[in-house]
Design a protein that fits this description.
4 helices, alpha+beta, single chain, elongated, 2 domains
C-alpha cells in the first residue's frame, strides 16, 4: 500500500475535522474499489491506499494537498531510501522538521556518497519529518 500525507487546516480540537475527512476519503475509496486506511498520527493525517488516491481526494473540501510518503520506524532504513533517491545528483540538501535530523541525515548521506551538500541551490532535496517514533520521507 502507498502512504500519503493529507494536508488540511485543522482546528485546535481536530477530532471532528479528522472524522469528517476520514468519512469522505473512505467513501471515495469504496466508490473506486480501493482498500484504504486513514490514521491520525502525531498531528498528520496519513492515508494508506492500494491505488493512487490523489485525483479523487483533490476535490474534497478543505484538502490543501496530498503528498506521497514512505514511513519508516528505523533510521537505517530511512537512510537507505534517502541514498537511493540521490544517486544521480551532484548536490543535495536535507529539509527536516528537526535541525538535528537534518544535520545527521545530511552528514550520513555525504559520508556514504561523497555528494556535495548545497543548502542554497541543491540539485536534489530530501524532505523528511520525525513524528513520534516514525520518520516520514516525502517522495
Amino acid at each position: 500500500m502507498k502512504g500519503y500525507v493529507i494536508r488540511t487546516k485543522l482546528p485546535r480540537n481536530p477530532e471532528k475535522r479528522v472524522q469528517e475527512l476520514r468519512r469522505a476519503i473512505l467513501g471515495h475509496c469504496i466508490q473506486n474499489h480501493m482498500d484504504c486506511v486513514v490514521e491520525y498520527l502525531d498531528g498528520r493525517i496519513i492515508l494508506f491506499s492500494s491505488g493512487d488516491i490523489t485525483p479523487m481526494i483533490a476535490g474534497i473540501k478543505g484538502v490543501l494537498s496530498v503528498l506521497l510518503v514512505k514511513i519508516f520506524e528505523d533510521y537505517t532504513e530511512l537512510l537507505k531510501e534517502s541514498l537511493s533517491q540521490i544517486l544521480e545528483a551532484k548536490s543535495f540538501a536535507v529539509r527536516a522538521n528537526k535541525k538535528s535530523l537534518e544535520e545527521k541525515l545530511g552528514s550520513d548521506i555525504h559520508t556514504a556518497t561523497g555528494i556535495s551538500v548545497d543548502l542554497r541551490n541543491p540539485q536534489c532535496i530530501i524532505r523528511v519529518e520525525s513524528r513520534g517514533n516514525f520518520f516520514l520521507l516525502y517522495i
